[in-house]
Amino acid sequence: MAAGLKGILPVLPTPFLADGRVDEAGMSRLVQFALNQGVDGVVFPGFASEVESLDGDERARLLKIVFTEVAGQVPVVAGASAADWHEVVEHGRVATSLGIRHLMVQPPKSVGTGAPALIAFLGNILEALPDVEIILQNAPAPRGSDLSPQAIVEIIRALPRVAYVKEETLPAGPAISHIIAHAPKTLKGVIGGGGARYILDEYARGATAAMPALEIAAEHVAIDRALTAGKRDEARKIYVRTLPLLVLQAVYRMRLTKHVLVRRGVIDSVGVRASTPDLDAAAIADIDANLVELGLLAAEAA
Question: pTM for this structure?
Answer without folding.
Answer: 0.96
